[in-house]
Amino acid sequence: MPFGRRRNRIDRSLRERGVPPEPQVREREETATSGPWDEADAPEDGRPRVDLGSLRLPAAAGMELRVDVNAQQQVVGASLRAGDSLLQLSVFAAPRAGGLWDEVRAELMRGASGQGGRLTEVDGPFGRELVGSILVAAPPQQGETGAPKPVRRPARFLGVDGPRWFLRGMISGSAASTPEAAAPLEAAFRSVVVVRGAQPMPVREQLPLTLPPQAAQQVARRQAAGQGARPAARRPAAPPAAPPPVAAPPAAAPVAPPASPVAPSASPVAPSASPVAPSASPVAPPPAAPPAAPPTEPPPTEPAPTEPPTEPRNAG
User: Can you give the pLDDT at residue 18?
Assistant: First the structure.
């Protein structure tokens, strides 16, 4: 007789004699985390965060938040700037079992090697990460003709697998190689909250982002005034008393959203009319370190890479 049926018979005889059954406690394995956070586990720390839909990014003094919108007013990227360093963030649908960061790390390393860069896997504050250098297109100079020549830049890739989501961050500038410069961006990455939502999405599909309400209203007013939409919206990360105006480059070059988690997020500023052609590698070059002062020329951009050779899987 199967063991399960015999146990049920014993339990029934105990109940018939009025003996209460022993409580059965099923222990659930929980993974402790200090951030980034899923919406269900987000701490009540009172820290202000900017709501971008699937991402809630921390607002901190001395740090600038930029959101990128295309001509259709779709948010296609978000980044945080601290000094001359940049943290670009993207969030994607992932399988319930997790493990997407393991796949993406391998693809990033292969892609960087194929482009002449080099990434090494190391232990970091968020688990396994990639550090090294990759080739990027230098910002076009005035009067320069032809394709920009690639230059080598330090880069650092962070990844976190959450419940049905995968968050990827790419650090460029001095923070990619200097721990002191990386500290504020690491703290910001740790404070990110991901809102996955219940809707089923293919694995590796980017989760939808939205403009903050104040910025969306400003864009709507600009459109009503006949000024048209601009690809990038910029606002300070520190919570101001009143929302600052949305400063953005012209609408001539909308940014296309990344297609996969191995593609770095859209550039913090819309690229020029002739962006660097995307490479065949799944690793796209990071931006050059942006200046500390407001940029007077378009910061470098990250071309969208080729789709990874992975058929979409239902994330459920």
Answer: 63
Mean of pLDDT values over 247-252: 36
| The pLDDT value given to residue 222 | 77
Residue (of 265, 306, 308, 305) closest to 287 by Cα position: 265
Q: Is the pLDDT of residue 21 over 80?
A: no
H helical segments located in the chain: 3-16, 100-114, 179-190, 213-224
Q: For residues 304 and 282, is the Cβ–Cβ distance under 8 A?
A: no
Quick check: is 57 in a domain? yes
Taking phi over 0 as left and psi of -120 to 50 as alpha, with beta for the rest, 167 belongs to: beta
Q: How many CB atoms lie within 10 A of CB 153?
A: 21
Measured over the CA atoms of residue 249, residue 207, residue 261 and residue 131, the dihedral's sign is positive
Chain-wide mean pLDDT for the chain?
73
In a domain, 195, yes or no: yes
- Mean pLDDT value of segment 13-36: 61
Per-residue pLDDT for 171 more than 90? yes
Tally of domains within the chain:
1
Q: Which two tokens stand for residue 205?
A: 């599909």
Predicted confidence at residue 234, as pLDDT, reads 53
Measured CA to CA, the distance from residue 307 to residue 19 in angstroms comes to: 62
Q: Which domain holds residue 161?
A: 49-140+147-236
CATH of the domain at 165: 3.40.1000
Is the pLDDT reported for residue 257 higher than 80?
no
61 close to 83: Cβ distance less than 8 angstroms: no
Question: Residues 6 or more apart from 202 whose CB is under 8 A from it?
Answer: 93, 312, 313, 314, 315
Position 287 in a domain: no
Q: Give a yes or no: residue 23 inside a domain.
A: no
Dist CA 173 CA 196 (whole Å): 29
